């Protein structure tokens, strides 16, 4: 493990310990301190609920916001797809009537042309 990774792990251990202490989980904090050999140095960011808790709140807000964005875009896509499907069904349902009217008009035009030719 590189020196930087070691320092990051040690910092994380300090913040985990800080979280345990601020949640008054003293038995867990003591066991963690002993096992992880947590430094007794004070935390650099001393948040009231603990830095990890505060970070988790921010992370959770971001995660929820992204999930809502995805859900909103999925809903828009579904609405768009449904609208296209509804249009297609409407079009296909009216197609026989439209073709019949077109065919009827075509026959009338042909009859009118034949009458003109006969005159």
Short characterization:
Helices cover about 85% and strands about 0% of the residues.
Query: What average pLDDT do the residues reach?
Result: 78
| Extended strand count | 0
How many angstroms does the end-to-end distance come to? Answer: 103 Å
Number of domains: 1
Order of helices and strands: HHH
> What's the gyration radius in Å?
36 Å
**Uncertain regions: pLDDT < 50 for 5+ in a row?**
none
Helical content stands at over 70%
How would you characterize the overall build of this protein?
The structure is a single chain. It is built from three helices and no strands. The model has no long low-confidence stretch (mean pLDDT 78). It starts with a helix and ends with a helix. The longest helix has 68 residues, at 51-118. The protein has helices spanning 3-22, 26-36, 51-118. The chain is 83% helix and 0% strand. By secondary structure, it is mainly alpha-helical. It has one domain. It is rod-shaped.
Topology:
Elements: H1 3-22, H2 26-36, H3 51-118
List keywords for this structure.
119 residues, 83% helix, 0% strand, single chain, mainly alpha, 3 helices
């Amino acid at each position: 493990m590189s020196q930087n990774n070691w320092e990051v792990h040690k910092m994380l251990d300090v913040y985990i310990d800080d979280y345990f202490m601020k949640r008054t989980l003293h038995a867990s904090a003591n066991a963690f301190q002993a096992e992880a050999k947590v430094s007794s140095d004070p935390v650099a960011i001393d948040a009231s609920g603990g830095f990890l808790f505060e970070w988790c709140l921010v992370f959770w807000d971001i995660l929820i916001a992204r999930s809502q964005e995805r859900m909103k875009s999925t809903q828009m896509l579904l609405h768009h797809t449904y609208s296209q499907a509804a249009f297609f069904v409407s079009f296909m349902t009216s197609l026989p009537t439209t073709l019949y009217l077109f065919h009827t008009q075509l026959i009338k035009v042909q009859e009118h042309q034949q009458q003109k030719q006969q005159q």
